[in-house]
Task: inverse folding
């Protein structure tokens, strides 16, 4: 088995996948904590479908996939976050509408052009290249820097946005930054784990950490660690068993979440 | 000079006017109770003062000695916070943020201030407890400690005792009265006319438009053209 792994890691591809996966898992997990706590957990899922649609349209019309889909997804993220604050359409219904519509647009745009829908849906770990590594590293750096510099404000806005607004805080600016970073994570993550599974990277680590810890600081740190550890484990398992990486990550996340729920249940029961 | 001046304001909720032609002032040290039935525009007024909804007409202005970040808010207990992983210390400390400009690190003074406020409200022993595991009364005290950490000059309180038992309710009223006695102006929306009678200095009685605004003494001596029966229902 060791020899097998040695051979696999002799090339660049698995290293790239490893680096991109770790950075992306951590980024998604950090963003996930605030999204889950603000009841926006479904936004990651909706955005992944929008991202799929944008990619399909970009390929069909001959545009650069990244340059086209990033602004589209970022704009959608911002609109969905705005919609969730006191409009007549409830946020979760809005996300469902956007998801379905995007999937339909993507499917129609993908017909006729030779897009490999399956790789967008489930991701392709071997498709990762050096520019993905650099992009993910930049994204991860930005997210971590923002979490470190503005940690206390992120806590305050996530815990009680009304209070911050009442004190004259610019909550919309933080929401916009969060929307932009989430959009980036989704667009980048799409290639790695696919549209169907990127939301799992966002939601699972936060949910698991919330089962185990009671303070915000511990939840944030634990979510990042859980995200990275479950990705690494799942990557090795998927390579050894020759199973799709994205699916392995989600199943492994599910197992950890189940164990954390059990611990939480035994503690409170 | 008033801390807060509302001049002829109208408010709407989903395009229906819920409040119109309202003018009043709050001065330093005032304790204003806003009373009225459900749907009378009380909550909309609070939201407008906090800057969460716009006014349709009229202006809400802050006096020179009050800046926006000196306004603290004690919300109704809301479900969104109930499942939130946060320690009591994290919650109280977050009150210090209002006065910070850009970066958001806490100094030693911020931490001392937060601890002093926890002590003041009797929640220091809960410092490392999880906010979501506290009783309703304890949670409200923690949120009051957060308000204190804001260096507030005006405390806005929206039906603070909903869901609290009689003891916790009395304790909360006593603490808010203490805060008021220390020089902080209080605006409180309440259903509890007895509390208004006991603690307020001024009363604003709303029914989609102001039916009364003035001192408590005038209100309870019946000089506002309301029948005795209506007043008891308010």
Result:
């Amino acid at each position: 088995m060791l020899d097998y792994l040695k051979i696999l890691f002799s090339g660049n591809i698995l290293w790239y996948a490893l680096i991109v996966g770790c950075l992306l898992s951590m980024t998604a997990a950090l963003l996930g904590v605030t999204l889950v706590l603000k009841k926006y957990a479904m936004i990651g899922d909706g955005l992944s479908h929008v991202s799929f649609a944008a990619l399909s349209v970009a390929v069909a019309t001959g545009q650069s996939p990244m340059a086209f889909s990033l602004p589209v997804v970022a704009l959608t993220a911002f609109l969905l976050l705005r919609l969730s604050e006191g409009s007549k359409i409830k946020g979760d219904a809005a996300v469902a509408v956007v998801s379905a519509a995007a999937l339909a647009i993507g499917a129609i745009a993908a017909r006729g052009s030779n897009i490999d829908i399956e790789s967008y849906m489930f991701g392709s770990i071997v498709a990762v290249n050096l520019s993905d590594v650099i992009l993910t590293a930049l994204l991860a750096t930005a997210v971590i820097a923002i979490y470190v510099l503005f940690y206390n404000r992120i806590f305050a806005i996530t815990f009680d946005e009304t209070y911050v607004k009442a004190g004259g805080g610019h909550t919309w600016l933080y929401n916009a930054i969060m929307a932009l970073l989430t959009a980036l994570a989704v667009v980048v993550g799409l290639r790695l784990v696919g549209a169907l599974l990127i939301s799992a990277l966002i939601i699972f680590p936060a949910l698991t950490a919330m089962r185990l810890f009671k303070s915000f600081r511990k939840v944030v740190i634990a979510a990042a660690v859980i995200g990275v550890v479950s990705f690494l484990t799942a990557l090795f398992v998927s390579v050894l068993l020759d199973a799709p990486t994205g699916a392995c990550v989600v199943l492994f996340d599910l197992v950890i979440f189940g164990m954390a729920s059990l611990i939480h249940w035994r503690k409170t029961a | 000079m008033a801390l807060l001046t509302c001049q002829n304001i109208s408010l709407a909720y989903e395009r229906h006017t819920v409040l119109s032609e309202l003018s009043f002032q709050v001065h330093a040290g005032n304790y204003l109770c806003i009373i009225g039935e459900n749907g009378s525009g009380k909550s909309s007024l609070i939201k407008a003062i906090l800057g969460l909804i716009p006014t349709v007409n009229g202006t809400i202005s802050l006096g020179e000695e009050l800046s926006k970040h000196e306004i603290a808010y004690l919300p109704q207990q809301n479900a969104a916070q109930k499942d939130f992983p946060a320690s009591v210390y994290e919650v109280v400390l977050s009150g210090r943020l209002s006065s910070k400009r850009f970066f958001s690190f806490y100094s030693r003074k911020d931490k001392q201030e937060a601890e002093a406020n926890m002590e003041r409200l009797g929640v220091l022993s809960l410092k490392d407890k999880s906010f979501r595991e506290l009783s309703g009364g304890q949670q409200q005290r923690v949120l009051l400690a957060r308000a204190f950490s804001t260096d507030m000059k005006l405390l806005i309180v929206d039906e603070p005792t909903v869901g609290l038992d009689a003891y916790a309710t009395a304790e909360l009223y006593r603490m808010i009265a203490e805060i008021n006695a220390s020089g902080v102006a209080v605006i409180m929306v309440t259903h509890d006319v007895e509390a208004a009678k006991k603690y307020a200095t001024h009363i604003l009685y709303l029914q989609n438009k102001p039916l009364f605004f003035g001192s408590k003494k005038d209100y309870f001596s019946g000089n506002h053209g309301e029948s005795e029966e209506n007043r008891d229902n308010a």
